[in-house]
């Protein structure tokens, strides 16, 4: 995303089955965005995400063909990291907490102010615009997490989604011990409590073999792991 003449250039996907509300949100956001995509079902939304580069999603939860929370879970497990704002008539605190834990960036309860939604999106745009692309490079390793390209001594290696999540968490906290429970939460989220305790160790051992320089990932026994920069 870039900024031109004070106007942020980005593509927003609105997933809302109420046609009038979908259209109304689009009209309000026109001045902020270059392109607005609309979907009225999860199937339509998934098709757009797979074929377009989406920068931000506004998502209703109660859709004709499923629950928006399941879609958030799918997106985050598929490593889509664009911000998501939930719109929902579900006002229980437990629903809000679950949505945020699954990976949403904000949660608005219906009925809501379109102006408030607009300003929330403007704030997210500013935040995104300031963020640097997440990469890592040293003498032997070159990782680009935005493009999902990973090279060891110039040779591209294929990493699984689990391995990428582990690597990203460790490098984001390089030279700092990341506790096992924090790694499990980053990789498996709410399902972490059902993950076999040995699953993390197995995944990290596979990752070490792939990046060759195994000493980069140091095991602090009984505590967690640390990426040595």
From TrEMBL:
<keyword id="KW-0238">DNA-binding</keyword>
<keyword id="KW-0902">Two-component regulatory system</keyword>
<dbReference type="GO" id="GO:0032993">
    <property type="term" value="C:protein-DNA complex"/>
</dbReference>
<keyword id="KW-0597">Phosphoprotein</keyword>
<keyword id="KW-0804">Transcription</keyword>
<feature type="domain" description="Response regulatory">
    <location>
        <begin position="11"/>
        <end position="125"/>
    </location>
</feature>
<dbReference type="GO" id="GO:0005829">
    <property type="term" value="C:cytosol"/>
</dbReference>
<dbReference type="GO" id="GO:0006355">
    <property type="term" value="P:regulation of DNA-templated transcription"/>
</dbReference>
<feature type="DNA-binding region" description="OmpR/PhoB-type">
    <location>
        <begin position="131"/>
        <end position="229"/>
    </location>
</feature>
<dbReference type="InterPro" id="IPR001867">
    <property type="entry name" value="OmpR/PhoB-type_DNA-bd"/>
</dbReference>
<dbReference type="Pfam" id="PF00486">
    <property type="entry name" value="Trans_reg_C"/>
</dbReference>
<protein>
    <submittedName>
        <fullName>DNA-binding response regulator</fullName>
    </submittedName>
</protein>
<dbReference type="Pfam" id="PF00072">
    <property type="entry name" value="Response_reg"/>
</dbReference>
<feature type="modified residue" description="4-aspartylphosphate">
    <location>
        <position position="60"/>
    </location>
</feature>
<dbReference type="InterPro" id="IPR001789">
    <property type="entry name" value="Sig_transdc_resp-reg_receiver"/>
</dbReference>
<dbReference type="InterPro" id="IPR039420">
    <property type="entry name" value="WalR-like"/>
</dbReference>
<keyword id="KW-0805">Transcription regulation</keyword>
<feature type="domain" description="OmpR/PhoB-type">
    <location>
        <begin position="131"/>
        <end position="229"/>
    </location>
</feature>
<dbReference type="GO" id="GO:0000156">
    <property type="term" value="F:phosphorelay response regulator activity"/>
</dbReference>
<dbReference type="InterPro" id="IPR036388">
    <property type="entry name" value="WH-like_DNA-bd_sf"/>
</dbReference>
<dbReference type="InterPro" id="IPR011006">
    <property type="entry name" value="CheY-like_superfamily"/>
</dbReference>
<dbReference type="GO" id="GO:0000976">
    <property type="term" value="F:transcription cis-regulatory region binding"/>
</dbReference>
């Amino acid at each position: 995303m870039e900024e031109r003449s004070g106007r942020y250039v980005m593509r927003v996907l609105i997933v809302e089955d109420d046609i009038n509300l979908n259209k109304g949100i689009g009209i309000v956001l026109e001045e902020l965005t270059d392109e607005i995509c609309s979907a009225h079902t999860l199937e339509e939304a998934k098709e757009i995400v797979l074929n377009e580069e989406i920068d931000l999603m506004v998502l209703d939860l109660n859709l004709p063909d499923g629950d928006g929370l399941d879609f958030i879970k799918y997106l985050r497990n598929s490593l889509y990291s664009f911000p998501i704002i939930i719109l929902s008539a579900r006002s229980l605190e437990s629903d809000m907490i679950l949505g945020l834990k699954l990976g949403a960036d904000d949660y608005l309860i219906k009925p809501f102010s379109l102006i408030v939604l607009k300003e929330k999106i403007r704030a997210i745009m500013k935040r995104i615009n300031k963020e640097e692309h997440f990469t890592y490079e040293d003498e032997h390793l070159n990782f680009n997490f935005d493009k999902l390209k990973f090279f060891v001594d110039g040779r591209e290696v294929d990493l699984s989604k689990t391995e990428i999540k582990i690597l990203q968490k460790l490098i984001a906290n390089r030279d700092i011990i990341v506790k096992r429970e924090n790694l499990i939460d980053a990789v498996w989220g709410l399902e972490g409590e059902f993950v076999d305790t040995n699953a993390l160790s197995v995944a990290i051992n596979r990752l070490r073999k792939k990046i060759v320089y195994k000493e980069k990932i140091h095991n602090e026994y009984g505590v967690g792991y640390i990426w040595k920069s």
